[in-house]
Write a structure and sequence with these properties.
Elements (H helix, E strand, L loop, with lengths): L1 H11 L4 H15 L4 H8 L6 H12 L1 H23 L6 H20 L5 H14 L6 H6 L26 H6 L12 H45 L1
Helix pairs in contact: 2-3, 4-5, 4-7, 5-6, 6-7
Length: 232
Amino acid sequence: MADALVKESQKLYRLPLSEFTAARNARAKKLKEGDPELAAAVAALPKPSVAAAALNELVREDPSEVRALIQSGKRLRQAQEAAVTGKKGADLNAAVKEHRAALDRVQRDLRRRRLSDVTIDKAMQTLRVTSVDPEWQPLLERGTLHEDLTASGFGLDPGLVPARAKQGPAAKAKEKPAPKPKLKPDPKLRAKLKSAEAGLAKAERLAAQALAALERSKQEVERARRAVDEAG
């Protein structure tokens, strides 16, 4: 059923937002007699957000830059994992720069579509997540995104946050640590933990504010550049 649902999703997510809900419901009703399971899955497809719909449209009409972004996201993730595990791999700084350049190119394409600054900001946040996450990359590439996403962790560009290396079941099976004796909680350690958590929360807020300021600055530069080009 998975392949069939992908095909149904691609057909529905290429429709204008104003037509999506009616078309989805009609399609689910038509499928109900022949394939109730697929019909239920189609009926559950959520209506895409404005930003997600814009990205889906971009993928359909001009997929080359999005594909390049996904490839740079894959190389970035590989470089992150190599850096975290201490293995030799691609240069992380070079991978970060490549990914940022790919993001900038897609952003320019989005701006040509006369979208609002809010929509573009949400679309770029979504791209930062989907371009580096293996679970989201196929949805981005197929043009079947439906929601706005934000980077987790400290709220920074995922290109700057090293990803944890994944381990298979065999590796996990070899890592059976000896049971540790239970210790009584130390009040001082609890106090230190509470203080550290408060510091972390503050750092996350500051990082999120810094990222928002960076995006605003990029938008201002882009608007100024367009104004200069138009004036010239």
